[in-house]
């Protein structure tokens, strides 16, 4: 019998194949975001949206769900549905682990994909529980920890260890986006650049400075200090 | 021969089954708490109590013990016995690893459970030693690191790596509570909400704001700024 | 003309006289607490309550107020009114600076006190604005920054500098409580100890260990390790 | 002779009077933003834009300028001109201190205002130099340090001390916005709420949760966990 | 009337004159040290002892006192009396501010010195209260904040601002020791070096490496890697 | 073929057996300590000495060595030889990995022990290289990371992952001391308490307060505040 | 079938053999460096250069490549080519994973080496993707994380876990340099010392102090304080 | 009598006039740098050198000195003399405060300048003592705290407060360089840019990216991803 840590990519290359991927975005709710303390909440919000945009660019199926959004956990942030209009929303009946909800599992199976990119708030609960369940059910799971959000950094450290031990691949937003994109040599390259500026404000600065520098060179603009 | 890291859940789903679980709360003593530097001590205290409350809600057996409470380590914090009145206290005879004490091991075996949720101060000693021993004795072990408390963050980083290597599951308080609870669709849901506010003060704020917002809507209360 | 920084204690000893003091607790609301990032929110909550308790012990007049509690800012935390049942609540009409509200100013004047201990969430707004206004109106102002809560540490650094520049005394919770208490040689000393354990969890641990150590000595209890 | 620290509000109330205010937004450039290390750059960007929006709501004159935007410092971020379309841009001729540029000084004087709200990247240079110069020239200066951005936190600590010593008021974004707004009892209150969500993402979460909670109450929506 | 911030060195050079100095070491107690969170407790302990040693080297009078050492605050750390055997201990009667105790004030006055070097745990209480009182009584006060210890870094930031505002000089251990020593050109230079290694472990490393490097040069020792 | 991560305790309990243990203390040199940035150097120094003391209490063989102590790396800190007078020093000939030195390997083998407790500065080099080599040579290796010291925290994070991957047990000082000690029910218990106060200054405070509290109870000492 | 984590050193010693090593330095570009937030950029730059220097000293083949250096990512830093003039540059065609580029793979294979030392900016993308691909292709991979640079510390934590899980060895700069060097007993020892001062500024200080101390001893220089 | 805090710029503009300035660079020694813990040592070293370079560009007199460089404090870093070959070195006779040395004071007076830019290691001693003395002697003093280096961040916080209280201007490296430079509209602008890249590595990245972007535009270079 093999090691469980190897379960979901044993003998396969442990990387994301965009053609075999479905994306699960779980419990990104306004109330739960108030509890997040392991990363900047605006960065978390931007990262979750960036995942949705990448899925849209690649026609990757997206399933969303929420934990009792009528209560203190609050509503799903609206930008996810805006960025992935094709996303399917599955209402649960109170199950904390989305995988425990039969409609949710059925929706995942209906995609026909065997690789899952998952993000969920809180990381140690809403991301970790379905990730571990999905590995156990035979899926290749990539758990996007910095598009999830947790109640403490220590809890995130613990969750990374638990996910790795259970055979899910812990991954960050940039690796996820880049493995999905694959190459800059593609027709929609500019749209990918916009996805990155969404998740990396310093990349936006680079592009702004780059465009200006080229414009100064092309238009032979004089430096103010040399006027 | 299989990998020891797989020992306690090899072939089984690496999650907590509340029906097969006993809880061990080890050495949560006032003196030892002064040494804790890897997390806020009030948060640690709240998390340990939350574990005890969850055990009471689910009728999970609880065993407590202390390391020479007559000396500088100080007394057990009283809230644990208050939150879990059914807990059994086992006095040791100086053994640092509680598992080395025959009465303690016997008490665990007497529960008939094969899954152990363990917390203990200091994390690298009072949590880690019995966890590793219990894995070796064939138990499924969930080590609740942020209900334990350690002398440095580096020591906790080391302990997480050691626990994972030894086949115990490192886990945080929210994942532990949520796996035990399973679903919000249950009769005692409100009592679980109180457990969470115990361990997550920001969740308490959410509930307070939520109730007030609904009350304003229901009672058509005017905004002060519109009077 | 003298320096404004000297305005509120020029020629007087810059310390708190409990007999000349009124306490203003401003905008400690559940929603605003979600925005606080310069200190632990549970600690902030405990510190605000400790101020109210101290005022009750000393019969210091307390005035509370809230910023549009019917809106997203949320309700006042209930513990303040519980800890200071004699507190007077003044509803405002949308003024951000409580001092701009005539009823609020009148309530302060009605106390007849010339020394004000003020705390308010957010520090840079709800504490700072009335503090600066009150100094300008001739009061001695002690601004309790760690019973207030702010949106960033940098904002708090800025506010400390601004308060000092404007002639308010920036102060922390322990200095405030201790200057009010004055001496341990008083009938209600034990009640003061409880106030401190409220605001300093490590002090609670000290007391728990202290009582146990004395009990072991008095009752000649044997160490577990020597049984 | 009076103390220089008192120069710009000696005998006056050290607060912002929106009717007497001009706003100077200096050198918020894409290249310079890469150097900022004392605060999150997205937060800085949001704060600078929030200042521009507030100025537009109140018809406060805005003057912008840039330090050699044709060179590595890069272009001004475009959102400032978008948020304050009435802003006047003054090109400099290489002067590091904007106040050294005669056209810039003339533009400030032309507003007829004696209170200046200033922000500039880098804090210790582009904010501090004009602030100190303007105090010396007799203006009341409010230096918005967290809408500026600096190369290190230590440099910001030093600049706060220097600004206070020179008689400028060090202030944060929330205090600046709130002193300008004054009261929630105004026709454009909702637009102010949007300005705050721009600069405080956690405030946006509060509003999202608040609206949902009221909607659930009003529409008698059932909780998912009770279906 | 002059600015109170200038009270204790107005017209005098704001530096320590060892010949005019008495040292007050207040409430360095084992229990209170458990509450210290603004600096490493071993460093605090070392710094307090270093002050006592310096006083002994220079025959500076030392007065020590404790806050109810029979209670949870615990005993004075013994090293201070060991390092300054000439220190005079004054028991208080419960006064939190040592300056409120008549015997303590009398002991200070009996030294005939007008410059006071003060350290006390907690910084915001046991250091700040006597410092402010002594400035008000006309003494030059140097408040050694990093030989004191406080319950939070924010509280220390507040205390530094309050001390400066009240006219006490906030100072660190190295500045205090070095101003007392004055010059390395003195007979007891080696003893001073030992004081510094006490308070600066990296200085001890420097000396160890220095001695070894000189020994290798003098004794023509071969490098192990060249054997 | 088994997993290499399991190499050194496959089928055995992954804990330290004091009777089968030798201790290797490598390159704790004054110069190298200046480079340490992942932990407090005084704490590192104390932890290394505590290991040596524990070895002496248990008659565990100790082998020390240094990396070119005649050069900038500097001399071994003297306290290790003082705390473990029975330690054997092995000079190397420039090998960075002590295990590459035949005399060093021979000295280890001569102890007849199969469990090694190792600490070395820098962690990622002087601890990690011999640890990985010893695992490969069939030893059970416990790598005491917080008695070692490294050039950055990131480097230590990397080394913990590498050590675990290679089959060494990453461990902290408290776990190491406690596993060696085993029980407080032993004749030399008091000497062990002294070892802990060496490595944990807060434990020393606990003991000081404990003794005083018992003394007050036994001798019926009056509180100062009740005199 | 063996565990993938063991793939690249199963049965072999998991250390670097300089004679079997090629070095891949990927995407160290001026624009990408602006995005790096998990470590100091100057330290990152120094570490990357140190790798190149070490490769030159040992005649290790070096392959460099860049990700669209004509765009906002910017040019390769020039010092790498200066430090390793023998490095081969391979231009890609937009592939994000350098291993996806056939010329790059061919260049690696042409070296005939089976051990790869890899560094790349961003760590979670440009280092991690080729590392995982190379492990899957049968290489022994050492991933030098602190010569790479990532967009957040959390992303680096995730990448370390992913790399270890995939069978690459996560390693730091000092371990990499030291395993390559092996011993100080070699002709080019002094050149290695220079490489270390490049990457460890505190080592440079040690050498400067060491030389001066020996010079003082040799030349019998008098101390200034004894003149 | 005026407030001492106003002493050195009372009635004057509190800015640096390059024509009236001398620069004092005190005790930047290899040994003392090992003790620095309030900032990165490489950054400190770069900042001190940048000051020297700026002085050379402007023909500002520079005086250097060292504290017993024959002892453990170590030699002056050589780059200062390299960057300012015109600097005058004054040997002291053991005085800790350089201002206490008559030759040093004479050298300062001989420059005929009344504005002093000072940096010194340690900040709280070697920078603060001469700064306070020079203010007292009537000089305008600018104390460059981040070109100095201190034993702890808390000590630096204390020193900033003390310097401001004593009437010295606390300032950072960028403000100092920029006030000295004044304008980019000058013949040596490119040399100033090099000084900034010395002290701000991210500025160097900006320039590298800027040049490449312009080159791509000018030479119509194709993007790799579009080949």
From TrEMBL, chains A, B, C, D, E, F, G, H:
Coiled coil (UniProt feature): none
Pfam families: Isochorismatase
Domain Isochorismatase-like per the UniProt entry, residue ranges: 21-172
Protein name (Swiss-Prot/TrEMBL): Isochorismatase family protein
């Amino acid at each position: 019998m093999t090691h469980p840590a190897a379960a979901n990519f044993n003998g396969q290359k442990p990387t994301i194949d965009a053609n075999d991927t479905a994306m699960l975005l779980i419990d990104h709710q306004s109330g739960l975001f108030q509890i997040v303390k392991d990363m900047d909440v605006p960065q978390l919000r931007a990262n979750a949206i960036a995942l949705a945009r990448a899925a849209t660019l690649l026609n990757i199926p997206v399933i969303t769900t929420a934990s009792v959004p009528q209560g203190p956990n609050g509503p799903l942030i609206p930008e996810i549905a805006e960025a992935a209009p094709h996303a399917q929303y599955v209402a649960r009946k109170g199950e904390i682990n989305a995988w425990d909800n039969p409609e949710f599992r059925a929706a995942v199976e209906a995609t026909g994909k065997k690789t899952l990119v998952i993000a969920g708030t809180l990381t140690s609960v809403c991301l970790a529980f379905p990730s571990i369940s999905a590995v156990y059910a035979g899926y290749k799971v990539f758990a996007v920890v910095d598009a999830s959000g947790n109640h403490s950094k220590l809890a995130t450290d613990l969750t990374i260890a638990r996910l790795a031990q259970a055979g899910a691949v812990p991954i960050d937003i940039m690796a996820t986006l880049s493995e999905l994109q694959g190459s800059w040599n593609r027709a929609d390259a500019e749209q990918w650049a916009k996805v990155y500026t969404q998740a990396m404000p310093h990349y936006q600065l680079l592009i702004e400075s780059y465009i200006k520098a080229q414009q100064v060179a092309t238009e032979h603009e004089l430096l103010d200090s040399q006027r």
